[in-house]
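Hello again,

I reread your note about wanting to compare the complex against the isolated chains. To keep things tidy I'm splitting this into two emails, and this first one only covers the full assembly. Below are the input lines as submitted, including protein chains and any nucleic acid or small-molecule components. They are followed by the predicted structure of everything together. The single-chain runs will come separately.
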Amino acid sequence: MRTPTAILNEDALASLLDELGREAAAQRFEVAPNPCVGAALLAGTEVVARGVHRWFGGPHAEIEAMRAAGAAVLSADTLVITLEPCSSHGKTPPCVDAILAAGIGRVVVGALDPDPRHRGRGLELLREKGLEVVLLEGVAPLAEVAPHFLHWTDNERLRRPRPWTIAKWAQTRTGQLIPPEGVGGGRWISSHASLEEVAVLRGRVDAIVTGVGTVVADDPRLTVRPPGDTRKSPLRVILDSRLRTPPSARILKPVQGEAESGGRTIILCIGGADPARHHALLDAGAEVHELHVATDDGVDLRDVQRHLWEELGVRRVLLEAGPILASHYLSHGFVDQVRVYTGSVNGGRGPTLAPELLRQKLAQRLDREVGPDAVFEAFVDPRGTHLRAFH
Ligand SMILES: NC(=O)c1ccc[n+]([C@@H]2O[C@H](COP(=O)([O-])OP(=O)(O)OC[C@H]3O[C@@H](n4cnc5c(N)ncnc54)[C@H](OP(=O)(O)O)[C@@H]3O)[C@@H](O)[C@H]2O)c1
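Full-complex prediction:
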């Protein structure tokens, strides 16, 4: 381990942590429910490399900084990081191990992990191995850098866990989810550039959830295609209380070669649904899971959340449904994040989700453009407080 000598003064460290927090927060919609984290490697008082956590499932900020440093990592003696490094195996190996292996002698941390199961553990491990650990709280607090992570790790969410759910939809200029007759094949609203973004997002979730209305109307496959990561195969889940999914649906067909990937197709229905349909769907390649709770709307969404989490091990969901299911998800408080594409299509059919969206407390909103489309992203704040955001 390299013994650190010079250290930046407290003002310089604070300003570096603030900058790293801002850089990290720019990735908030890509990494959630993971925290936004930024890191820098220093040789003496010189920053040799920086890194941020860029996308859910991707390398953590410390690892990105080490990669960016290349051979210069050998001269680095201090790691500055906005959040305590992880000490347990998640989608990636623990960062504490990588820090130890890199021979860094000092770690400056901006915040402790809020998860009571991990809080302080990473720092303890580093201290035990003889590293100097400096905790400089209050400069880039999680309440500003990654408020969503505080919700994800709060007692209420830990007690009743459910997948992080990103509701994504495309709408016309009038806010409708279905284009006018004869436009976009009755289905397409957003541009190729937007569809490519969605392909990437599909490769970064554990499951894609839709309603049977979409399956019947559009016959989608809900697969991952380039530029999405086709090494990933998210489950394809259809909420279909009475098994209306046609056995001939394309979502039940095997995926086509190496150019696309798709996970198992799972139909969630109400217990006791038509046995003939049930058998036909099994024969067609579906898995049919009967849920025990039904409501007037169909399968009970709370039961769906439990099933996804407990039975299917799903942690991050992309909801790609029509207006009926999307509005029910929003009104039941099961949406954590929204991504809305507004395409250059006039008019449209069906209801808009605007009234339901207006009832939500949105936080950390971001408006941007992709190709000719407008995109709006935000977190749905479960506590209804609008928190200060980095932009
Ligand atoms: N622009 C977009 O981003 C986008 C995305 C997807 C679809 N669409 C369009 O939306 C149209 C289809 O609309 P849709 O609203 O019928 O589709 P949907 O929302 O995908 O499916 C609705 C169906 O899901 C079933 N469901 C099961 N449990 C439910 C629950 N708890 N709450 C709500 N629904 C539940 C219901 O059928 P059962 O009662 O039979 O179970 C319900 O009719 C198509 O024209 C499609 O092109 C647009």
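For quick reference: Residues 385-391 have pLDDT under 50 and may be disordered.

B.
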